Amino acid sequence: MIKAKKSLGQNFLIDKNILEKIVNITEIKNKTILEIGPGTGNLTSFIIKKKPKKFLVIEKDNILAKKIEDTYKDKLKVINDDVLDVDENSLFDEKVTVFGNLPYNISTEILNNWIINLKNDFWFECLVLMFQKEVADRIIAKFNTSNYGRLSIICNWKLNIKKICDIKPEAFYPKPKIDSSLLFFYPKKNFIKINNPNSLEKITRIFFNQRRKMLKKPYNQIFNGDKKVLEKLKIDLNLRPQNLNLDTYYKLAYEYEKLGS
Question: Is residue 133 within a helix (H) or strand (E), and if so which, with residue range?
Answer without folding.
Answer: helix 133-139
